Amino acid sequence: MLDAIVANEGEPDVVQISGGEPTIHPQFFDILAAARRRPIKHLMINTNGIRLAQDPEFAQQLAATGKHGLEIYLQFDSLDNAVTQTLRGADLSRIRQQALANLNRAGLSTTLVVTVAKGVNDHEIGDIIRFAASQPCVRGVTLQPVQFAGRTDNVDGKNRLTVSEIRRKIVEQSGLFSEADIMPVPCNPDTLAMGYAFKDGASITPLTRYLDPQTLVESAGNTIVFEHDASLKEHVFKLFSTNHSPESQANCLSELMCCLPEISAPANLGYENVFRILVVQFMDAENLDLRSLKKSCIHFATPDGRLIPFESYNLFYRPEMAAKLAQIRHRIDAGNAMWAEGKGKVFAIAEE
């Protein structure tokens, strides 16, 4: 799968290792090393944070592989125990807090990823953003409205949240960002919105308000046209890509701030000064739009070498994978039963 991504993109900007829960895979560090050996600029680890919380050395082991180009994509739905129980079936808020404490000690760049459900945790958006800003290791928050697919395909459509609604809630609840600070992302303005800020300790200074939003959405294809300022054109286009590491974000922020007379750019600006808000709406069967699907910025790599847009994977391909995994699970259960009864030897499942 890694080779398929490299063959398709040459030097991929971002690859996310996900699951399931990747950190409990017995060959996790081998997989990470295999990814490091390839010309991938930035690696993300998508995790529920449980191993990071329960094993303090795990974060240090991750840091020892090299902090540059590595980011933790930490599931963080709520600060409220009752909400995590509703969304995840377990009280995970303390686990998330401990995971963050260990990530702070290890100095690993982290993004908090919030699955937002209407009437469940959408009132916490501002609190989570302010909390994220107070954490030294956190570089931003990604807000993902629940996708009505897979295990949540029976949700009442009245509970759908859109990018615009999330954007308004950020403004109303955070006290940090205005409407002008959350703008469409050029690669797919229908489903992605982003805001950047300069972070100094726990202090946040939004930057996006100084840009003209029309310049981000009026261009052809996936480009931006800044008719009035060529330097802004270059820096804003780079900044408003989703394919960033914290280090490259810091470089782009520094370049952009030098072009904005309202903002003074510190000479030593680094990745700890980056703070990004990203809103990601994944389409489902009710709102699938082929034009937006063709512009999708997020893809699954499959074992047979295909790259499939996230939305279409969940709608059309995940049931097939779930059925395959169910067969494997059944075979494992049958083998365990045979072993327990003393009727068989060690039951090995050949890798599918």
From TrEMBL:
Pfam families: Radical_SAM. InterPro entries: Aldolase_TIM, Methyltransferase_Class_D, rSAM, rSAM_sf. Its cofactor is [4Fe-4S] cluster. The keyword Iron-sulfur applies. It comes from the Bacteria. Residues 6-132 form the Radical SAM core domain. One of its GO terms (molecular function) is iron-sulfur cluster binding. Keywords: Iron, Iron-sulfur, Metal-binding, S-adenosyl-L-methionine. Transmembrane segments: none annotated. This is MoaA/NifB/PqqE family protein.
